């Protein structure tokens, strides 16, 4: 496996995807949105299983993410109960990302948001899934111990780099 791989993240907003074309374009992995919340509550992305199966059939490695609005541990547990049921039995080669991009979450404060992200990641680890988080401004996330701090900073920088590369690729392919 190459040190750097080229991939995409997808959700219902891309509609039906021609995964053969995605693979032919050189993509090696896909991070597929399992779900999110909205004013109507939680929803599972209607294209999730179709995208996972399509990406795998085209030879891509697959991971997942969910966009969270959770502001309490109970809300985190509720989200993960819903999304883990959908992912049950899937073999994911890439992590499940807790996507904490929503700016409303910053009002929780660094300690509380960090605690919620760690709680979500702990649940994912307990299910034997690799877990990471992604955020636009990761200064609102801290680590529990200073021994983890450098590792989390490294992972954060890698995720930011990957996010930026994916965003740049999307922009360039639209030109």
What does this structure look like?
This protein is α/β, with parallel strands linked by helices and 175 residues long. The protein has five helices and six strands. Strands 1, 2, 3, 4, 5 and 6 form a six-stranded mixed sheet that branches. Helix 1 links the parallel strand 1 (7-10) and strand 2. The longest helix is centred in the last third of the chain and has 29 residues, at 146-174. It starts with 6 loop residues before the first strand and ends with a helix. Mean pLDDT is 81; it is low at 143-147.
Q: Helical residue percent?
A: 40-55%
Give, in order, the helices and strands: EHEEHEHEHEH
Largest sheet properties:
6 strands, mixed
Distance between the termini: 30 Å
**What is the residue-averaged pLDDT?**
81
Q: Which stretches of 5+ consecutive residues score pLDDT under 50?
A: 143-147
Structural class: alpha/beta
Dominant shape? globular
Notable characteristics:
alpha/beta; six-stranded mixed β-sheet; 175 residues
Helix-strand blueprint:
Elements: E1 7-10, H1 19-24, E2 29-38, E3 41-44, H2 48-57, E4 61-67, H3 73-87, E5 96-99, H4 110-126, E6 131-134, H5 146-174
Parallel strand pairs: 1-2, 2-4, 4-5, 5-6
Antiparallel strand pairs: 2-3
Helix pairs in contact: 3-4
Provide a quick synopsis of the model.
The chain is α/β, with parallel strands linked by helices and 175 residues long.
């Amino acid at each position: 496996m190459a040190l750097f791989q080229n991939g995409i993240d997808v959700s219902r907003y891309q509609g039906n995807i021609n995964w053969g074309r995605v693979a032919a374009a050189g993509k090696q992995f896909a991070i597929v949105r399992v779900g999110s919340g909205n004013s109507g509550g939680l929803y599972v992305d209607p294209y999730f299983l179709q995208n996972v199966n399509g990406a795998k059939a085209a030879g891509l490695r697959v991971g997942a993410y969910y966009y969270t609005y959770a502001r309490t541990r109970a809300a985190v547990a509720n989200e993960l109960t819903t999304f883990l049921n959908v992912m049950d039995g899937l073999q994911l080669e890439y992590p499940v990302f807790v996507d904490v991009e929503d700016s409303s979450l910053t009002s929780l404060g660094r300690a509380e948001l960090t605690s919620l992200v760690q709680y979500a990641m702990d649940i994912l680890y307990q299910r034997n899934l690799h877990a990471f988080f992604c955020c636009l401004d990761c200064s609102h996330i801290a680590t529990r111990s200073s021994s983890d701090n450098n590792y989390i900073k490294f992972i954060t920088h890698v995720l930011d780099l990957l996010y930026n590369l994916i965003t740049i690729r999307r922009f360039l392919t639209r030109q």
